[in-house]
Amino acid sequence: MSAAVALRRDAKALAQRIAWQDWERVAAALDACGHAILPGLLDQTECRAIAALYDRPDGFRSRVVMARHGFGSGEYRYFAYPLPETVAMLRTAVYPHLSPVANRWNAAMGIDVRYPEAHVDFLQRCHDAGQVRPTPLLLRYDAGDYNCLHQDLYGEHVFPLQMAVLLSEPDDDFEGGEFVLTEQRPRMQSRADVVPLRRGDAVVFAVHHRPVKGTRGTYRVNLRHGVSRVRSGRRHTLGIVFHDAL
Ligand SMILES: O=C(O)CCC(=O)C(=O)O
Ligand SMILES: [Fe+2]
């Protein structure tokens, strides 16, 4: 089989894996707790291939050493356009399954912004506002590294959900390094969730806030995400943010 044919077959398999996710369950989990797992989104070969890009000299627009900015310990690189095919496909093919949730959430929170059905149209909105820099990123953590709780806001235009795909195998490639989400409800202390991921699983989660129904109507809770300390080994993640950056 030629490389081109193999790539086309891979792209089709990935498109199918995205289409076959239980998107109703995902929407229900997002509504109930602000995050949802997409099991087995990438296969082992795809995970290895994407993680291996980290050491390539080209294909990225910048590299961030987290300790220099107080973001944690470890580093990440933002992809340059054009994105690798798998990354581009994940971003454009997952988006239409999430935009209805995003629109519903904004309506519930009394926010006027609505999101178009196609990612290309949302990107155009970002680009028209000067948010032209691609935000998908590869992260790399070694023993002792961690990612402080944060929100990935890169300008006025924000798509309220994002996704992270674990590219390394817990207990095998690394120990520790759990994906953590915290929720701050008004006038209450923060609550943490640890999301159990295997290699190839993705977690979809709220970027900054989400609606929660209370006895006196709907209120907003504020979310942050991060990664607990990696105890040993090396952990790679692929981060997919749907808005571009200023
Ligand atoms: O490494 C992780 O699991 C989290 C990465 C992250 O902060 C992101 O994708 O926005
Ligand atoms: Fe992040």
In short:
With 246 residues, this protein is of the alpha+beta class. The chain has helices at 3-19, 23-33, 44-52, 66-69, 85-108, 119-128; strands at 35-38, 60-65, 72-73, 75-79, 137-142, 146-150, 161-166, 174-176, 179-184, 191-195, 202-206, 209-214, 217-227, 230-241. Strand 9 (179-184) and strand 10 (191-195) form a beta hairpin.
Describe the structure.
Helix content is 30%, strand content 33%. The chain is α+β, with helices and mostly antiparallel strands. It has a single domain (3-241), classed as q2cbj1_9rhob like domain (Jelly Rolls, Sandwich). The strands form two sheets. Strands 1, 2, 4, 5, 7, 8, 11 and 14 form an eight-stranded antiparallel sheet that branches. It is globular, with a radius of gyration of 18 Å. The mean pLDDT is 95. Bound molecules: 2-oxoglutaric acid and fe (ii) ion. 2-oxoglutaric acid binds at residues 139, 147, 152, 164, 179, 225, 227, 237, 239.
Provide the low-confidence segments as ranges: none
Order of helices and strands: HHEHEHEEHHEEEEEEEEEE
What is the first-to-last residue Cα distance? 42 Å
Structural class: alpha+beta
- Each distinct ligand: 2-oxoglutaric acid, fe (ii) ion
Tally the beta strands. Answer: 14
What is the count of structural domains?
1
Provide the gyration radius in Å: 18 Å
Instruction: Could you tell me the CATH topology label.
Output: Jelly Rolls
User: Can you tell me the overall shape?
Assistant: globular
Look at the structure and give the CATH class: Mainly Beta
User: What's the quaternary structure here?
Assistant: single chain
* CATH architectural name: Sandwich
